[in-house]
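Board notes (copied after class):
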Amino acid sequence: MKEVVSVKVMRESDENTIKYKTSSLELMRRAGEAVYNAYNWQGKTAIICGSGNNAGDGYVLATFLRDKCHLFLLCDKFSPDGKFCFDECVRLGVDYEFLNEDTSFEGFDTIVDCIFGTGFKGEATGFVKTVIDKINDSGKHVISCDIPSGLNGDTGIGYSVISDLTISIGTIKTGLILNEAKDKIKKLLNCPIGIDITGDKYYLLEKDDFKGVIPERKNFSHKGTYGYTAIWGGCEEYSGAVKLANMSLSALKAGCGVNRLIVNEDIAQSVAPYLLESTLFKMPKGFDKEKIDEALSSIKCLCIGMGWGKGDEYAKILYYVLDNYNINVIIDADGLNTLANMDLDILKRTRCTLCLTPHIKEFSRLAKCDMSEVNHLKAKCFAKEYGVTVLLKGTATAITDGDDVYFITSGSAGMATAGSGDVLSGILCGLGGYVEMDIKTVSLGAYIAGRSGELAQEEVNAVSMTASDTVRNIGKATGEIYGY
């Protein structure tokens, strides 16, 4: 579990450490040394420096590499500590020059990007953009110090350097994992330098953080030991037979004992041929209390709403479930759109343990806000107000119960295909059949879905893979965690 912070928290923590514990110059020295120790330097290195403390880290790195590097300066401006370290480079005889339109990086094996730090805001334009283009077009191995220059340290958006390796200093910032970050950073490594975090922290969860979440499978057990689950979705206009079947299979592969697929009787015949291990429950059109109770008999976890489309009866169904049951419930897709038009106070009153799995647009409808306002903090406030767990889908998935925020970065470009979200919901449903549906369990579901997608992309490719490829790899992803 790795700590993740905002740029503001990182800056305030840095200032607090300088005030009470360690000088700014010493922190700069540690940062540059950390970058030096983090990589096996070979050949000749070009270190490109801007005007701030990020440049200072580059100057310290140059004092270690010395005759194996060459400094390229964007301008003749320096921060006070940066000037001290630059003067040390000059004293040691490190070669340097100022960048210009004709600057070439031919003859270098590695480029180190120390132009902007995490405090950069706005958009890289003019000559700076030209330099970034030169770096990206160089074909060299690119290392960014703290963050790829031009990328926003909070949002992970911006025209920036594309790095083979980014060496984060102190603590990972949210901009290193959100939105475009995964396309700008091939590998991320964090190097602590003794800065104590004094504000809100989030957490990046990885494979080893999930050991113990799923109980060991016993021989002396049966299908009921691992829970009865149900997936309720589809309608005549959006039968989605294959997607619904994938969801059911995902639930079973995630470990539940039995999965029941609940669909309108109008589409039951089209769905049935795709079901092998799951059972099928035919639901009459409209609201039918007796049939709902029959369908949800013995169910421990319900995933509801996918492919519902529109209809007043769905609000009645969802309200009835939330008002009368005490089970794990995952609301996804059209279920979220249905919920967005209901009185959300039902979320505060229900005895169900709720997980909502929106993408940005779905969350904006729920929270009655603009899509540009949606982020992990908005999701955290919503989760706190309504007592739910929110899984906000994205390049990095954010999971929050209103108290903590966890990030999951597993996943692949090939998952940008129809049905990937349904597979995630199916996995969550399967876990909810036999494990407490808390923030750690939901995070595990997100990790398994993402890792399954990574394995699928390795098998197929990013262009051709489908959601069923991801389903096929759920067993491998789960096995990696628990050594099966």
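Comment from the instructor: The longest helix spans residues 439-459. Residues 68 and 245 are 59 Å apart (CA to CA).
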